[in-house]
Amino acid sequence: MDRSRPDPCPAVDDDALTAAKAELRSRHRAARRALDPAERARQAEAAAEHLWPWLAPRLAAARGAGRTPVVATVLPMASEPDTGPLRTRLIEAGARVLVPVIEPERRMSWTDWTPGVPVTRAGNAPVDEPTGPRHGPDALTDALLVLAPALAVDRSGMRMGQGGGYYDRFLADLPGSVPVVAHVFARELLPAGEVPFEPTDRPVDGVLTADGLTWLTAAERPAEAVHLPDAQ
């Protein structure tokens, strides 16, 4: 899968790009804060339901081949889409679930999540991290899926994160054979071109919301993928 940024890059100066990203982050953070907790829970359950028809056969195939399937996701911040329903399903299906640990120099390592695993608060982010052994990016070389957090994603695959650059650095070295899907709320899938980007930003392959699983290029789109109508 090609994770080079769309071409050509929008011709904007650094100050304008920074301002555009800041405005988009501010707008979507405010919308997330206003989202009702019951609606958050509904969207988490719906997203897991939409992902499962694509993911479950791949989990079964890996187990049938004698491998433990690996899926990466996150322990989300309070404002982010909840991954709890999906993580529970993955464990029940025999998957190994890896979640990120924030490291110095804006890098991430990975550690195993299981129900009840001891966690600690991250040193420089409002997220929890399991306290078990840490693994390098090689642990995800053959992952079935990386489910990445985002504030918004547009239909060219450009992802707006929280601004730390952790996932851009990680995705730059991730094998192209590993699908990367951003997990956002339903109204955070935007028309192509609405997420400003720079050369270090890396697009994702798909987007998961409560409305469906959307693959963003025909080359990576499985036949059974669920398609959404054009963004409203």
TrEMBL record:
Keywords: ATP-binding, Ligase, Magnesium, Metal-binding, Nucleotide-binding. It catalyses: (6S)-5-formyl-5,6,7,8-tetrahydrofolate + ATP = (6R)-5,10-methenyltetrahydrofolate + ADP + phosphate. SUPFAM superfamilies: NagB/RpiA/CoA transferase-like. InterPro entries: FTHF_cligase, FTHF_cligase-like_sf, NagB/RpiA_transferase-like. The keyword Repeat does not apply. Its EC number is 6.3.3.2. One of its GO terms (molecular function) is ATP binding. Its cofactor is Mg(2+). One of its GO terms (biological process) is tetrahydrofolate interconversion. Pfam families: 5-FTHF_cyc-lig. PANTHER family: 5-FORMYLTETRAHYDROFOLATE CYCLO-LIGASE, ATPASE INHIBITOR/5-FORMYLTETRAHYDROFOLATE CYCLO-LIGASE. Belongs to the 5-formyltetrahydrofolate cyclo-ligase family. This is 5-formyltetrahydrofolate cyclo-ligase. The lineage of its organism: Bacteria, Bacillati, Actinomycetota, Actinomycetes, Micrococcales.
